[in-house]
Design brief:
Distance between the termini of chain A: 36 Å
Helix content of chain A: under 10%
Oligomer: heterodimer
Number of strands of chain A: 11
Largest interface: A-B, 21 and 21 residues
Number of helices of chain B: 0
Radius of gyration of chain B: 15 Å
Number of helices of chain A: 0
Strand content of chain B: over 45%
Distance between the termini of chain B: 40 Å
């Protein structure tokens, strides 16, 4: 199975900050990497697919980059709605696997 | 509007089975695969398996092989996930999630997709 390792596990930031979350795959997954965010009691929401493709309706302050085994999610100018848990996920091969999550909270 | 509506909360005893449903609306049901993902309390996301509604073809995570069955009823646009021999560590929220069918384009490039629409989740509690 492909292991996905996210860092950091938790982070604190302020409104307006720029934050970056990193995700590493245990083997190459090309660009088949997605980012989700999830709020308590809600289903995950797809933000970015194919490493850098922003989903329709997702604000442009979100961006993704990377290929192979190293990926990043960047959020520019944090907004109140962005404080949530973020997950990366590989869909290059079964079993699909997720990172352990990064909890982003308000400083 | 694309929507996945899941069945309600379940409470089961260890050793029992649970069957969760996921009814799709707003899109061509057989054009997308349906996956199941679960999340234990305070934990991360775990992929369980997938079904292709057009063929009934399934693939399961090895961890759940022999205990899980995913089925579909195309007449009512519904997918089911049955988990047997429940244990306390199966207590989790179970989500269905839609994934567009993979394909090769005219340049022979293989496109694959991920979970773009999710159900609201079904809490399954396993407790004696």
């Amino acid at each position: 199975d492909i292991q996905m390792t996210q860092s950091p596990a938790t982070m604190s930031a302020s409104i307006g900050d720029r934050v970056t979350i990193t995700c590493r795959a245990s083997q190459s997954i090309s660009e088949w990497l997605a980012w989700f965010h999830q709020k308590p009691g809600k289903a995950p929401k797809l933000l970015i697919s194919k490493a850098s493709t922003l989903e329709s309706g997702v604000p442009s302050r979100f961006s993704g980059s990377g290929s192979g085994t190293e990926f990043t999610l960047t959020i520019n100018s944090l907004q109140p709605d962005d404080f949530a848990t973020y997950y990366c996920q590989q869909y290059d091969s079964f079993p699909y696997t997720f990172g352990q999550g990064t909890k982003l909270d308000i400083k | 509007q694309v929507h996945l509506e899941q069945s309600g909360t379940e409470v089961k005893k260890p050793g029992a089975s649970v069957k969760v449903s996921c009814k799709a609306s707003g899109y061509t049901f057989t054009g997308y695969n349906m996956h199941w993902v679960r999340q234990a309390p305070g934990q991360g996301l775990e992929w369980m398996g997938r079904i292709k509604p057009n063929t009934g073809g399934t693939i399961y995570a090895q961890k759940f092989q022999g205990r899980v069955t995913i089925t579909t009823d195309t007449a009512i646009n519904t997918v089911y996930m049955e988990l047997r021999r429940l244990r306390s560590d199966d207590t989790a929220v179970y989500y269905c999630a839609r994934v567009e069918t993979s394909y090769y384009d005219s340049s022979d490039y293989y496109w694959t997709f991920t979970f773009d629409v999710w159900g609201q989740g079904t809490l399954v509690t396993v407790s004696s």
